[in-house]
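QUALITY CONTROL LOG
STEP: pairwise intake check
CHECKER ROLE: data steward
CRITERIA: each record must contain a sequence immediately followed by its structure tokens, with no blank fields

ENTRY 1 OF 2
RESULT FIELD BELOW
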Amino acid sequence: MARKTASEPSAGISADTRMLILHGTDRFLQDEKLEQLHAALEKTHGKDGVDTIRFDGQAGPRILADVLDECRSTGLMQQHKVVVIDNAEMVIKETEDEAPAPPKAAGRKRAPAPHSPREILENYAADPSPTATLILRAATWRPGNLDKAVAAIGAVYKCEPMSDAEAIAWAQKRARESHKTSIDAKAAGTLIATVGTELGRIDTELEKLALAAGGEGQPITAALVEQMTGQSREEEFWAIQDRLLEGNPGTTLAELRDLIEVSRHDPVAIGWAYMDAARRVHMAAAAVKQGTPLKSLARPLKIWGFGPEFDRKIALMEQAARSAGPARAARLFNAVVAADAANKSSLGEPMRNLEVLTVRFAGAIGKR
């Protein structure tokens, strides 16, 4: 299925939609599809006639019975239900090879009952409740027969970040339609280069820039974008390493939450920054023990700059290396590698894994 973005009409979303699959890493696109669904349902059933119930897919396939019971049950007041499974990939992660085979029936042959999560959902899609819309939200997704079954009664949307060119066009349209301002291609390009292509972040910045431009009808200029958006996304991303090396867990946790919840950086990518920081500490700890000056290792340690700022970074790394020592630094690096593998394999909650690593960093390199 071709990718559908928020800037395109959603012909597949209407009051008759009974199932949606929203998968991909751009939560803003997913949220926009949900808003479009709610708008269509409220137009038909009224604002008080639509109720939303959420389930967390991290509980695994066992929640499916409760989900489908919710879809098929009717309350005292007739309402249309929007039943959302967040982290739906955790519900259907079971593969065909892992799924238990149905028991063989004795005597007459009967069609086997659905036995895998995908088959259970396919079975529901064949006869969905007329008073509910079931939404599967996931960051990762493996297409299959379920997608075809859902498309027959709703739609499947791949909600991935746009290319730079798509994001520039989207920003221009969004500025005009939602923020009553304008932004030319050059200014929009500067904005995308600074904050990235995540639509939620772009929309937040456009709202801020529209106010700074002077109100409705005043254009957003490239100079205003440069003035208001601050440090680049890449600079913001790597700044977390300095917080880690300072060994203050409170400060680092606050910056981590800001990176993920406000700036919308990918936790898996942030994990790579953690791993790189741990690798550098391990290398520096070994060098310090051998009496090697860290300034001579500035390039492999990725310590750049000149003057006082360069000296500050060298001192920060040396302090972390001396505090950790080679053995503790090695254990820290192994822990970061394990957490990185867990995040890439959807084992545990990525934010939680990074929070635990933050505390481990502080324990390994904090002042003693």
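ENTRY 2 OF 2
RESULT FIELD BELOW
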Amino acid sequence: MLKPGEAVALWGISVDTAARSRAFAAELAAGAAGSVRFALLSDPAHRVIDRYGVQDPRYAQLRHAGIPYPSVYVVDRSGRVAWARIEKDYTQRPANSEIRAAIDAVR
């Protein structure tokens, strides 16, 4: 999806601890999915998730409180959200081509 040498940063943010995120990345790397090519950021208190308003209320009363809806944001260099897609259904994700078009539109 990213072009070689492209100045774009990708992050995955979850309520998982940093240790759990590292273990998850190791599990993926050991399997067919391959290594994770972006930083996995830990937000166990779901501050960032709450700030973006994407906490999935279905998990509010469970031990997994703070789990967000699947969300993708393209943020420009000034910190402005230039494009976003938030899904209520975790099986629905934007295509890489859709994200690529959003990145290209920011340039």
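INTAKE CHECK: passed for both entries
DESCRIPTIVE NOTE, ENTRY 2: Helices lie at 18-30, 47-51, 96-106.
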